[in-house]
User: Fold these one by one.
Assistant:
Number 1:
Amino acid sequence: MKIGIIGAGNIGGNLTRRLTALGHEVSVANSRGPQTLTALAEETGAKPVTASEAAKGAQVVVVTVPLKAVPDLPAGFLDGAAEGVTVIDTGNYYPQRDGRIAAIEDGLPESRWTEQQIGHPVIKAFNGTYAQDILDRGRPQGTPDRQALPVAGDDPAAKQAVRDLIDELGFDTVDGGGLDDSWRQQPGTPVYGNRGDADAITKGLAEASPERTAEFRA
Ligand SMILES: NC(=O)c1ccc[n+]([C@@H]2O[C@H](COP(=O)([O-])OP(=O)(O)OC[C@H]3O[C@@H](n4cnc5c(N)ncnc54)[C@H](OP(=O)(O)O)[C@@H]3O)[C@@H](O)[C@H]2O)c1
């Protein structure tokens, strides 16, 4: 599959490593330009590109930049993507890093905010997954206690595409509901950073509270 990854840090870098290893055709971008991505490109075979180019022809685009950088993404960066492109948002709101975002403080789920910024529906996934786990903790389907990731979003086909991709990466998934339910996997919830299996993640999602913990409020 043709996959564009915008953000080449902890999460974007490791997704680039694993997805290229699985045979996907990956383009990867950061804020400083493709000339700063030669080491990652040589290591993985991914194509280093600008953020404007990353989505070109892609069936899946991963937006994995700090939340505060989302409004800086180039206007129309999804315009050249494949028809029906699925956009994955890995983001979390850390006011200490991102500054105060009033709409989120007032209760808008952070991925709904991201969706509004980029003008395209998103599927929230990987946001509570340690970056290193993407490299280290993938296991074949059926492995007992296989780690599970929650996935939230409104478009059933896009959500299924993301769940299939995560399965390829070696993890089970749990349906986290629509994007309006995605607060159930935001920072501070029981599933955030939870390495449990599908039963544990299902239980954690059910036990979540929409109240943002003090640590994750401005
Ligand atoms: N770290 C984790 O374990 C983890 C786990 C789950 C979710 N997350 C969430 O996932 C998101 C990314 O986290 P991270 O830890 O991977 O971040 P990170 O290591 O700080 O990397 C951020 C990446 O985004 C790029 N970037 C910033 N602004 C950009 C722009 N305007 N256009 C294109 N690229 C841009 C940066 O490029 P430059 O370096 O060139 O500026 C960098 O490659 C965050 O919202 C984070 O909360 C992180």
Number 2:
Amino acid sequence: MNNLSTCKEWPLLAQKALNGECLTEEEGLAVLEASDDEVLPLLQAAFQVRKHYYGKKVKLNMIINAKSGLCPEDCGYCSQSIVSTAPVNKYTLLDKGTLLAGAREAMARKAGTYCIVAAGKGQTDKELAQVVDAVKEIRETMPLKICACLGILKDEQAQRLAEAGVHRYNHNLNTSKANYPSITTTHTYDQRVETVEKVKTYGMSPCSGVIIGMGETNQEIIEMAYALRELDSDSIPINFLNAIPGTPLEHAGRTPAMKALKVLALFRFICPSKEIRVAGGREVNLRTLQPMSLYAANSLFVGDYLTTAGQSIGVDHQMIEDLGFEIELNAL
Ligand code: SF4
């Protein structure tokens, strides 16, 4: 048992985070290995940091799966990969009208950010032009922020997206550098980092996060948080693996809800000012403890994920209201 593992210590970690200091690995391990009895005081400390930067506001994001399945990559968690036998929809890039209809749906759900996500290692220039065309019209007609997630980017593609008005670009690190080859062999961790750096070069806001529950150690979770702090990712989606039958990781167990809360507190301490989103797998891993996640995280996905269902928008809005929190519109 780590000696930094009582409720007396958590406010010190919060203060350290607010002072701009990074947690040591020992302190990070104390968070992740804390007894479940410590989760309430731990979240209370994380909440002080969250409140400092975001008050009680909750940012909502909605995803559209703009191109589904048919992906030649072999990401072990993904139902759209070439090595998955999961029965997912397979379609090429959605037309402009459908992408615009998705944006209107995001507005109806009070999402401030609309995330256009397409399967694949990257997109062709023709596909990118289709996205650019839709983004321009959304930007002209709706007060939405746009996040694109289109895989590895070429320089000119990054420039075209930025010029079209894409605010943010998502490219997750997913797991630690050491664990990466056991999850994906068709591209590398370093290629992921390069894309996030490219996003910053072209003036888009970087969004990069992780998937917890893919065989990583606690030390590796801390490494991921350090890597994202170093990358200065503005937005950090914390996904918890939803093991989909037919994927290589189908037998990975779920992350216990209490562990998921400790992970969220850890990221709040290590990346204190960043938008931390409790992302994919929220419903199946946190289950009835979902509301507690918002004491550390300040952002949610609403609606469905890429190939799995989310909970109803009414339940998400009710959860936020019941917590006494408030939806932040049009935030990035
Ligand atoms: S995560 Fe993306 S790149 Fe990897 S298999 Fe799925 S769609 Fe393809």
